[in-house]
């Protein structure tokens, strides 16, 4: 009797919350959208593997700007090139902020470039872009690293003796090692256990964050903390990666020569020292550890899956492979550089490595 009374009361509260939600939708004149259920919102009817497919279908009914509920989170969905451009380009100032993604916030402990907004984002982004450029992004020094790493990659591919193989792991090793050069100032051997563990963990984190279980964490983080599941293993792995990064940072601190910075971490330390009397500085170790983590998470999977996709295009269109100068990457060979540029742009256009923006869902057909 007592239990059924509690259930009825609970049900009434849920319905009440739902009705208040409906009323506030009208009051704030939110864009139209499908009717949402209490607590779960529209989650149950979203295509779990490709949510954009459901969203595209809904946009035919509700238009290019819709309100959708991911659990209790209200989300504005923009569909189509013109709508996305109007928001993110024409009204860029109003759309620069991004909402918190629970998984990323937990992984980065609330610090770093990847999740921040406002002054923190602006300072870390400016610093990171300038520093990565100074260390060769798009410059001659990096060209040499990439050539060396890609030559090792080709040797490893050739060692498979034309038997079928999955290039995923080889590609992640190569891409990650270029990031290691910029960030840690060192490259790792492909037999180095710590490096292999870092790669495995990075791949697991990315896989988890885009899985239905990872999405569920983003929608109900508080609840998921109490439930058993893979997310606990992923968070434990993230802690291992953070401690790997922290050890590297510690070693940098002990060997720092401020007049001759070796890599991203040294430059960050120089900036910490320059701003040590500034009480509102964003240059401190919490932001350093999380930004280094961001660089690995954001850089490895995106770049290696883009190259993987490009490889599959090359397999399908051998003529294009010929025009790009084949697998040996001489980045400064001018005769093939236009074709390479066009091919890589086409690759980036035709496949979505990060189709869903952080703060609004944006789709262009
Ligand atoms: C083909 C390769 C790449 C693709 C397609 C790609 C794509 C993207 C996209 C779409 C975003 C914006 C995400 C959002 O706002 O929601 C982003 C952000 C970011 N990417 Fe990449 N990326 C690539 C390579 C890299 C590399 C190599 C690095 C690091 C070395 C990197 C580091 C970052 C960082 C730190 C952010 C966050 C920037 C910020 O918040 O201002 N990415 N990337």
UniProtKB/TrEMBL annotation:
GO terms for biological process: organic acid metabolic process; xenobiotic metabolic process. GO terms for molecular function: heme binding; iron ion binding; oxidoreductase activity, acting on paired donors, with incorporation or reduction of molecular oxygen, reduced flavin or flavoprotein as one donor, and incorporation of one atom of oxygen. SUPFAM superfamilies: Cytochrome P450 (SSF48264). The keyword Iron applies. The chain crosses the membrane at residues 6-22. Its cofactor is heme. One of its GO terms (cellular component) is cytoplasm. It comes from the Eukaryota. Keywords: Iron, Membrane, Metal-binding, Transmembrane, Transmembrane helix. Belongs to the cytochrome P450 family. This is Uncharacterized protein. The gene is LOC115401240.
């Amino acid at each position: 009797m007592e239990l059924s009374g509690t259930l009825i009361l609970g049900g009434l509260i849920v319905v009440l919350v739902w009705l208040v939600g409906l009323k506030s939708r009208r009051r704030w004149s939110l864009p139209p959208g499908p009717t949402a259920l209490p607590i779960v919102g529209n989650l149950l009817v979203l295509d779990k593997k490709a949510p954009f497919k459901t969203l595209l279908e809904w946009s035919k009914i509700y238009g290019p700007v819709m309100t959708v509920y991911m659990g209790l989170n209200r989300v504005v969905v923009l569909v189509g090139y013109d709508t996305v451009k109007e928001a993110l380009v024409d009204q860029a100032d109003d759309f620069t902020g991004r909402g918190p993604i629970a998984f990323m916030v937990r992984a980065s402990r609330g610090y770093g470039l990847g999740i921040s907004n406002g002054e923190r984002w602006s300072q870390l982004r400016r610093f990171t872009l300038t520093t990565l450029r100074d260390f060769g992004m798009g410059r001659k020094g990096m060209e040499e690293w990439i050539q060396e790493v890609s030559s090792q990659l080709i040797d490893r591919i050739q060692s498979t003796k034309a038997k079928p193989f999955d290039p995923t792991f080889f590609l992640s090793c190569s891409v990650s090692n270029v990031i290691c050069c910029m960030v840690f100032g060192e490259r790792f051997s492909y037999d180095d256990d710590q490096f292999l563990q870092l790669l495995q963990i990075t791949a697991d984190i990315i896989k988890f964050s885009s899985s239905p279980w990872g999405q569920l964490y983003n929608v109900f983080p508080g609840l998921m903390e109490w439930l058993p599941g893979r997310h606990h293993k992923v968070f434990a792995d993230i802690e291992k990666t953070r401690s790997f990064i922290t050890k590297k940072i510690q070693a940098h601190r002990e060997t720092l020569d401020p007049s001759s910075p070796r890599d991203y971490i040294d430059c960050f330390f120089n900036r910490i020292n320059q701003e040590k009397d500034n009480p509102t500085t964003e240059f401190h170790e919490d932001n350093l550890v999380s930004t280094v983590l961001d660089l690995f998470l954001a850089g490895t999977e995106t770049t290696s899956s883009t190259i993987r996709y490009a490889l599959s295009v090359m397999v399908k269109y051998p003529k294009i492979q010929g025009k790009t100068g084949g697998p040996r990457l001489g980045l400064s060979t001018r005769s093939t550089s236009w074709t390479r540029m066009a091919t890589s742009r086409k690759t980036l256009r035709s496949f979505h490595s990060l189709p869903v923006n952080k703060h609004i869902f944006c789709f262009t057909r």
